[in-house]
Amino acid sequence: MALKVELKPGERIIIGECVVTNADQRSRLLIEGDAPILREKDIYTPERADTPAKRIYLAVQLMYTAKDPRHHHDVYFKLVRDIAEAAPSTWPLIEAINNRILAGQMYKALKEAKKLIAYETELVGHARRFHATPGHDPRDGEPA
Q1: Which residues contact 96 (CB under 8 A, 6 or more apart)?
Q2: CA-to-CA dists, residue 138 to 85, 97, 143, 144, angstroms
Q3: Confidence check: pLDDT of 90 > 90
Q4: Residue ranges per domain, the chain?
Q5: Is the dihedral angle over the CA atoms 100, 7, 41, 69 positive or is it negative?
Q6: Which pLDDT does position 144 carry in this prediction?
Q7: Fewer beta carbons under 10 A from the terminal one: N or C of the chain?
Q8: Could you tell me the sign of the dihedral formed by the alpha carbons of 71, 121, 89, 105, in that order?
Q9: C-alpha closest to that of 93 among 127, 63, 121
Q10: From residue 85, how far is each of 12, 22, 144 by CA, in Å?
Q11: pTM of the model
């Protein structure tokens, strides 16, 4: 069964290791075969990967689209170690990503990485609200 994809004018999509850019009108593609496919909204570039979780997503994305995902394992595992050390509460999410990678389910690993990005955003939001609390002394980590 073919995958149906509709593209807006100028929208990009990755099919395998190729980036396809739609021309100036809406298009419908029917894609048959087994190739990694990512819509533009799900594509991260190095510039867009501006947080630890987003860099992990980018590493998984590169594994997903590569002919040999192992070329990206070293970078991925370094990023995972760094975020797990900085925020141990991320471990269950990282473990879910790892399990998908080990099972060869790279697209599902990307979905799990999106959950890590959402969790990271939540953690940063909590930290900002905590440090913005009146009377809080950031040196001791507790409200004054």
Answers
A1: 112, 115
A2: 21, 33, 8, 9
A3: yes
A4: 1-43, 44-144
A5: positive
A6: 43
A7: N
A8: negative
A9: 121
A10: 36, 42, 28
A11: 0.84
